[in-house]
C-alpha cells in the first residue's frame, strides 16, 4: 500500500510516497483511508524539530471506511468513520491507504459530514475540547483567544462565541479581521476582534488561551488569572509569572471527545473551515503551503 512518510528529516522535499505492507488486522479495526489532514505537528516531525524514529509514516487525523471490523467492536465493514492516532507515541501514522486502530478510539462519521471534512476534525477538535474542559470556570470572565483563525483556534472560537456569560476577545492577523468581525456579529458572546499586540491590555484578562504561539501575551493575564497554551515550542516560562495558573495542554486519545466533535460538525456548530484536497503525491506541496504561514482552512491528502 502507499503511505506518505520520511526516511530522513529535512525540508518538504524529504516527503516520499512509500510502498509498505498493509497493516496486520488481528483484533484491530482497519480503516481504508478516504482523507487524512495535514497538521503543524506533521511539519515539526518531518523537519526533525520533534524527534521520531525513522522511517516514519506521518499523520494524526483520518477519515474513511471500515475495511475490517473485529467481532464485537460495534463497527461493520463499510461504516464511515474518523479516528486520531498519536503518531509520535505509537509510530502509526494516518497517511496510509490502510490504517489499523484500536476500535475504542474510532467513531462514526454522522450523515451529512463529507469524509474530507471529517478528516480535519480529530486533532484540532479534540485538542480544543480538552483545553476547554481544563479551563477554569468561564462565567463572567474576560477571555482572550489567540489564533482564532487556526485549526484548533477555530474550534475554540466556535464554542467561546456561544457563551454569553463571558466576554471573549479574539486576536487574529490583520488580514483576518473583517472575516472574524462578520463571524462574531450576532453571536452571544460580547467582545472585540483585535489584530495588534499593542491593543492588548497588560494584566487585564482572567483567562488567556494561546492557540497560535504568542508567549509575550502571558503578560495579558491578570494576577491570579489563567494562561492555557497548546504550543510547547513558543510557550512562556511559567516561573516568570508565579501569580498565574499555567497549563500546557497535551492532547490525549479520547473516543467521547471524537464523538462530540463529529456531532458538533453534523449540527453545523463547529468552525467549518474550507478544506483543500491534494493527492498523497503532493504532500511536499501541502507542507510548503502550511509552512509559509497565512494558510487558512484545512489541508487534506487523499490516497
Ligand atoms: N499541545 C497539543 O496537544 C497540540 C494539539 C494540536 C496542535 N498543537 C499545536 O498548536 C498550534 C496550533 O495548531 P493548529 O492546528 O491550530 O495550527 P494552525 O492551523 O496553523 O493555526 C495557528 C494559527 O495561529 C495564528 N497565529 C500565530 N501567532 C499569532 C498571533 N500572534 N496573532 C494572531 N494569530 C496568530 C496563525 O496565523 P498565521 O498562519 O498567519 O501564522 C494560524 O492561523 C501548533 O503549533 C500545533 O502544533 C498542539
UniProtKB/TrEMBL annotation:
**Cited Pfam families:** ADH_N (PF08240), ADH_zinc_N_2 (PF13602)
Source species, domain of life: Bacteria
- Report domain Enoyl reductase (ER) positions: 10-301
Task: List, alphabetically, the InterPro entries matched.
Answer: ADH-like_N, ER, GroES-like_sf, Lipid_raft_assoc_Zn_ADH, NAD(P)-bd_dom_sf
Q: What is this protein called?
A: NADP-dependent oxidoreductase
Native organism is Streptomyces olivaceiscleroticus
